Amino acid sequence: xxxxxxxxxxxxxxxxxxxxxxxxxxxxxxxxxxxxxxxxxxxxxxxxxxxxxxxxxxxxxxxxxxxxxxx
Length: 71
Fold this sequence. Notes:
Blueprint: H1 3-17, H2 22-29, H3 33-40, H4 48-58
Helix pairs in contact: 2-3, 2-4
């Protein structure tokens, strides 16, 4: 699994665990809603700064966005 795919899966999972829509997450992170969707669809790769911003809103360590799937 590529790192981009891992970030996409973890972002979607963490967002859903917080019961946030893409729009709500984007609003809280002060980014465009379309960008969140593009990250989750693996159309864009997030910068380190963006991972930090999203993790802050999701209240997790940024490393959580890079973790392998739980088996």
